[in-house]
From TrEMBL:
The protein's name: DNA methylase
Membrane in keyword set: no
Cofactor: Fe(2+)
Organism encoding this protein: Cognatilysobacter bugurensis
Keywords: Dioxygenase, DNA damage, DNA repair, Iron, Magnesium, Metal-binding, Methyltransferase, Oxidoreductase, Transferase
Residues that bind substrate: 46-48, 66-68, 118
Pfam family, any one: 2OG-FeII_Oxy_2
Name of the coding gene: alkB
Source species, domain of life: Bacteria
Keyword Methyltransferase belongs to the record: yes
UniProt GO molecular function: broad specificity oxidative DNA demethylase activity; cytosine C-5 DNA demethylase activity; ferrous iron binding; methyltransferase activity
PROSITE patterns assigned to the protein according to its UniProt record, in alphabetical order: FE2OG_OXY
Limits of the Fe2OG dioxygenase domain: 96-194
Alphabetical list of SUPFAM superfamilies matching this protein: Clavaminate synthase-like
Length: 197
């Protein structure tokens, strides 16, 4: 399916609920789940360090070190299964992504808190391509200053959400916990580190 724009003021969002065919998405999930060296990252919140409530890995080109949540992450090499995905994204979006943050939400109690992907090394208007695999979870965006400007999107297996333009400047986003009994979800956010190092 094609990417279609989602309406949200001060944001630029494009969504394809089925960017990967179900069989492609199944194969990618099975492969990445087992080949990525999952870690518990530390996150800094209000000056205190915590264990992140999910498993993560920073993957990328050798020079694409990435600092977020107060830690500098040296990239793990690209798993072979991500090569074709990276190429297809480059062709579709015209962005040569050099890194990807992988997150594994083991069940509904694993989450991602409110944040923007606005680290300096991503540049002023980053294109962030978010590919979701596994259980469908709700992704929410809210405007930093206009409380009634917000959007919730269900992100199913094989879907692609692209955030670009001023989205990170004006909005925060999160993946809330859910009490529903649901399975694992693996999310990949492809990024371009503009100033490696
Ligand atoms: O899991 C998701 O859909 C969101 C992940 C995210 O916001 C991030 O990795 O920065
Ligand atoms: Fe994010």
């Amino acid at each position: 399916m094609p990417l279609t724009a989602l309406p949200l003021p001060d944001a630029e969002l494009a969504f394809d609920p089925q960017w990967l065919l179900p069989a492609q998405a199944d194969a990618l999930l099975a492969s990445l789940r087992d080949t990525i060296a999952w870690q518990v990252h530390r996150v800094r919140l209000f000056g205190r360090e915590h264990r992140a409530p999910r498993l993560s890995a920073w993957i990328g080109d050798a020079d694409a070190a990435y600092g977020y949540s107060g830690t500098r992450h040296v990239p793990a090499p690209w798993p072979a299964a991500l090569g074709p995905v990276r190429e297809r994204l480059r062709d579709a979006l015209g962005v040569d992504f050099n890194g990807v943050l992988a997150n594994l939400y083991r069940d509904g109690s694993d989450t991602m808190g409110w944040h923007a992907d606005d680290e300096r090394e991503l540049g002023p208007a980053p294109v962030i391509a978010s590919l979701s695999l596994g259980a469908t979870r709700r992704f929410v965006l809210k405007h930093r200053t206009c409380a009634d400007v917000r959007l919730a999107i269900e992100l199913p297996h094989g879907s692609l959400l692209v955030m670009s333009g001023a989205t990170q400047q004006h909005h925060r986003h999160a993946l809330p916990r859910t009490a529903r009994p649901i399975g694992e979800r693996l999310n990949l956010t492809f990024r371009r580190i503009a100033q490696p190092g």
